[in-house]
Please model this.
Amino acid sequence: MPATRKLPTELDAVIVGAGFSGLYQLYKLRNLGMHVKVVEAGSDIGGTWYWNRYPGARCDVESMHYSYSFDPELEQEWEWTEKYPSQPEILSYIHHVADRHDLRRDVVLDTKVTAAHYDEDSALWTVRTEAGEEVSARYCIMAVGCLSVPKKPEVPGLERFRGDWYHTCDWPESGVDFTGKRVAVIGTGSSGIQAVPIIAKQADALTVFQRTPNFSLPTFNGPIDQDMVADIKSRYREIREESRQSGFGVAIEPPTRSALEVDPDERHRNYEERWQRGNLTGVLQAYTDLLADEEANETAAEFVRGKIREIVDDPETAEKLCPKTYAFGTKRPCLDTGYYETFNSDHVELVDLRETPLVEITDSGVRTSDREYEVDSLVLATGFDAMTGALLNIDIRGRGGQPLREKWQDGPALYLGLNPAGFPNLFTITGPGSPSVLSNMIVSIEQHVEWITDLVEHMRHRELRTVEATETAEKEWTDHVREVGDMTLYPQTDSWYMGANVPGKPRLLMAYLGGVGPYWQKCQEVAANDYEGFALSA
Ligand code: N01
Model:
């Protein structure tokens, strides 16, 4: 059944966002017999994988682990074709799940939520859309994604640019052909690093504007290994459980030794063997202290720099591509297919914006402090207002009309990353203060959706009307998130994890680093102790 465009005026629950999290939440709440709709700004379902259609877009969690676990038949039937899934393949998977479970009939597309206000008398949320529609519901569930509000470069002139420009996370559905064009890419995070090799194959000339170099590792992507598929499928339940108990949402052999207690040759061999695995966790999880000790981290960082110097022919370009100002892993590392190799082509140029800062976009290109680069097309791979951006874009008001924007002016505060005190019956799937972006997102999404569903069921069973975090529980959890973060090197680096990529944003680590398994255990303990830290009322 096609997605609907009509929003009723009353519901049991409104879910905002039709990506992996919103669709699963819909499935779960509908199974409780609740009247639920998902409201989605986009013209189709898919969330992140609907919007991020830029060339080369691909997940950097391996296909066999980047899928729902709630439908055991589906996980046996679905055939991934590559080691790492491409954006079109993930999107067709999401469509398949939606069709299989008839989810579309409860998704309202092309409808942007602008406000959600809580009414204390009725204990209902009123959710308003851009078109002025209003729906009231007992529960309001934000499934808005952690990386869904695009960030543009903070330089003037984009409106003057006469060529075509695109943001990686809002790419035309029809695709873009850069054949014969002079192209500029601004930004070298995961999106830029994936797009650059593909754009370089089409363009006549490509200029990459880099402000901070990233650590990137090769995917060694290719057709999926069918023996591995058969093995995983034969023990999927066990593997899913291990993922839920793991640190990052994919089970790995945990490191046991410090990088500093190992002989340098042996350490190099270990890094080399892990580099060849073509994944994010191999090198990063080689030793216990890589994310906690600068000296240990430097051994891995220098190993990756060595690889960059080996791959890139021009020593000057190689040095510019080598990250030297922050610890490996503390800014989201990337996985790529041929990124560094791209700079060996004569028609590709790297501009180091630390040497010659970006000044403006002109009508015909990009001007740095040094000169103007004339281009036909401009690609902004400048990232997102992460974690809080999408929530604060909505005018959310809780008890006493308190705006969430006001409550969070010094940074996000929630209990377990799931609910801010003073905002009863409002839940944030993979919200700030949960492992979210520091994990395999689907594992964290499923945990949150299942936990929220259990709580809603519990409340219906007991005929309870409201649930909300206590101020004390919220404060203790928020302090705990910060303390755990402070034991690592993450807070030392300017990254979007820290909100540092958006001028004026409070600087603090927004994701929980305690690990997916321990976090899940904590959530389960809270539930088992009659939702300790939450106030439930009839
Ligand atoms: O965004 P980013 P992204 N002038 O913020 C630069 C996930 N993801 O879209 O580092 C000049 O990482 C900015 O420079 P700097 C993944 O979690 C996953 O690439 O701030 N440059 C940086 O180089 C990822 O981490 C996948 O100094 C400016 C770049 O733009 C997250 O999404 C694929 C600038 C932004 O990089 C975000 O990735 C894609 C300015 N004014 C994304 N402003 C996979 O699964 C920003 N920049 C593989």
Remarks:
- The pocket of 3-acetylpyridine adenine dinucleotide is lined by residues 58-60, 147, 153-155, 168, 186-192, 194, 211-212, 332, 335, 353, 358, 381-384, 437, 496, 501 (CB under 6 Å).
- The chain has a mean pLDDT of 97.
- The longest helix spans residues 441-461.
